[in-house]
Design a protein that fits this description.
Blueprint lengths: L7 E5 L3 H11 L4 E7 L11 E8 L2 E7 L11 E6 L2 H12 L4 E2 L4 E3 L5 E6 L2 H5 L4 H12 L6 H9 L2
Helix pairs in contact: 4-5
């Protein structure tokens, strides 16, 4: 394997460049790189965007305009670990805005149909707590939420 790690390829139906610019507006330390175009005789119109390379907070992506054959599903999602409620609110609002859709338990779909999980950083520790009552209270609390409420999860964890 190449020494520079993985690149996630996202298949779009003509919106790869728009999506890349949207995502870099949401995440810090991000940017758009090389853009390639379809040549004459290809499966998409000549000159239209074929691929867009972009980086989101250090993670590499390739947006591919492959056509309508494949779409995104919840089977693949990107998890954003947030330390504060302000971070959760920021990502939730940005990613559900302008056509995105909120979902249950911290999940959402952005306007391109990509699934995201906007989670408190401590969530996994709370639900993996060796005290099964604490874990059960937190699980019950988050199962009733759309966007996560860190204070409510902390109260459930503490048994309040």
């Amino acid at each position: 394997m190449a020494g520079d790690g993985f690149t996630t390829c996202l298949w779009f139906d003509g919106q790869a460049e728009e999506a890349a610019h949207f995502y870099i507006s949401v995440f810090e330390n991000s940017g758009v790189g090389r853009v390639t175009r379809y040549p004459e005789g290809a499966m998409q119109p000549a000159g239209s965007v074929m691929t867009v390379e972009f980086t989101l907070d250090g993670q590499r992506f390739l947006g591919l305009n492959g056509g309508p054959e494949f779409t995104f599903s919840e089977a693949t999602s990107f998890m954003i670990s947030c330390e504060t409620q302000e971070e959760i609110d920021y990502y939730w609002d940005k990613l559900t805005g302008n056509g995105g859709r909120p979902g249950p338990c911290g999940w959402l779909k952005d306007r391109f149909g990509v699934s995201w999980q906007v989670n408190p950083a401590r969530l996994q520790d709370m639900i993996a707590d060796p005290d099964p009552e604490k874990a059960a209270r937190v699980t019950k609390a988050f199962m009733s939420m759309g966007k996560f409420d860190i204070a409510a999860l902390e109260r459930a964890y503490a048994g309040e």
